[in-house]
User: What shape does this take?
Amino acid sequence: MIGAKILLVDDEVVFTGNMAKLLTNRDYRVTAVNSGDAAIKALEEENFDVVVLDLKMPGMDGITTLEEIKQLGLFTETLILTGHGAIDTALEAIKLGAYDYLTKPCEIDELVEKIEGAWSKKDDREKEDIQEKIHKVVESPRSAFNVFSKDKRKK
Amino acid sequence: MPEHAALKNESVLKDGHLHKKTYYARLFRRFVLLTMVSSLVPLLLVGWGINIHYTRFAKTRMINSLENQLANHRKIVELFLLQRTSKLNLIALTHSLESLSDMSNLNTVFEVLNQEDESFTDLGVIGADGRHRAYIGPYNLMDKNYADTFWFKKVMKNSIFISDMFMGFRKVPHFIIAVIRQERGATWILRATINPEVFRSLVEDVQVGKSGEALLLNRQGIYQTSPRFSGKIMERAPFSVGDVHSGVEIQMLKSHGDNGEEPSVRQIAALTWLKEPRWLLMIKQDYSEALGDVNHANYVTLIFLHLSALIILAVAVLVTRHMITVIKKRDKEMDQLDNQLIQASKLASIGELSAGVAHEINNPLAIILTERQILLDVAGQTQTMDNDFKEQFDASMKQIDMQIHRCKRITHNLLRFSRRTQSVIEGVDLNEFIREVVDLMEREAGTIGIKFRTDLDQNLPEIPTDPSQLQQVFLNLITNAIDSHDGKPYGSIHITTAGDDRKQGVRIIIADTGSGIRPENLEKIFDPFFTTKAVGKGTGLGLSICYSIIQRLGGAVTVTSEPGVGTEFTLFLPLQPPHELEESIIKKEGSSSD
Assistant: This one.
């Protein structure tokens, strides 16, 4: 079975490297980037199931990155993994639409569990969306053209 | 605030404590002195003014009275002499030399003269040759010749003459009145000796107070009467009489005692010169007695002033003592506030630091954890591992995991302490809340023999506070209370709640029967990282967290403890949460609704 496609975003290169290794060992397809900008670029180029995002980064910080990701209008779920003490910030991130948060250091099993949760939520949302579209096509075939012609990335 | 600044503040406070005692003593002295000066100066001024005024008034009155007495006596003496002179003059004018030369006639006249009072000692008729024509009196003077005596010469010149006191032939102090008569070419003199006792009693019997007397002196300063106290008739007075003047003069004299050993006494004297003879009538009195009223008044004033000063001193001391007590109380309250402020700022600065440190440590910890996981993953895939090595490897991995978790617990506590948590304020029934916490903790405590007792005020109002943070506080305090029974087979934790109407809040007391806190540690227990627990058992953050949470909720924590007996924590929570907290909640709600 092929695991979820994960984008790791953290300014700690060693951490992302190690994490990528661990997740790859657990059959995930992992891409690691070390800044918010790189994350947005990667998301624009490729589809990911789950983004694991650090909050405190130089340059574009986690919250801004999250906002940018939301702007893209993807089904991709974001999981916050932060070593920062600001639980307030983590809560804010959830309010902005992050799936959940974990504080560093955390066990790999814990992370895997959350990733699975996020992935299945993403899948559910995707399925719901497709069903909705099918429903619309059945109800009003004329609108089908409009629905499918729209690029969802620019919604 | 940087830590060294906080330390400096603390040392300043300690210095303050050292100097406080002398400071209060100085304050006390200064207040008393100020009160004394501000009260006594006006009092003394008024007293002084009244005294001066009264003294002047009393002196004037005393001098007036002295002058009046003198004037009266002068009148009496002058009248006495005038009457005697007139009588003699009348007799001389109405009788001829021939008739008066007859002894029986002269005797009749003498008896008539002495009818009212025996003011004449003798009476004589003397011819121009100085010899007696006739004489009635106790002395045998018939054959005396007066032609060469001073009075004879004077009377021949002045027609009427009153002599000074003199001894004469009889060797007794006396004076005479002589009138001259011209009768058909012949000149004769009627001469009478005034009874010295009668005359002297006029003056000598005058008594002015205890020390006062009246004196008569002639122009040479010879006593004409005997002074009451010192000196004798015919003796020279120890002061000069000065020149003749009219009216009354007031003089200050210095008198010496009889034997000269007594200290000199200041005397006040009123003086007036009689018209004829030119005698000086003097009334004098000791100055201190004359001014007795004034002195008495001064004495009373002095007593009054001393009493007033004493009363003022007593009042000043009492009032100041009360004031100092109030000031001490205020200072103490201020010190407590200062200490709380220092504690709060210390916690705040450590909070800031902790958040940063926690983050910096969490990242490497996360890396270590991933490295460990990678090693575990790799080890899992490796089949050919030496048994001993595998054993050691597993043990090390386990230890690494344990230590990482230990670090994690520290950093998470630090973050909690640095208040990076959100408050959720809701109405809390404290009694119910405490029952729940006690239920939770009883299981743990029960196993080591510690019992819970609660004494909850049933009329406690619901208070708006953050239940999850409050739970943290209770859990920390109760955990500490349980831990403090380490080594004791049994004990109890007593929780009391009570409303505090005066401070508008609720008091919760958590008292344990544990080992207590040593006095030197009592000041430090709220400091972060201060712990008396074994290494690895406590982070030293529990009470700091309690302190910062309670403070954030607008309350206060105080502690009393007796080593070996137990510790008592008193929490105060206000009925109204502080404004900052309310504002932050409103802000939060506002931002979440965007």
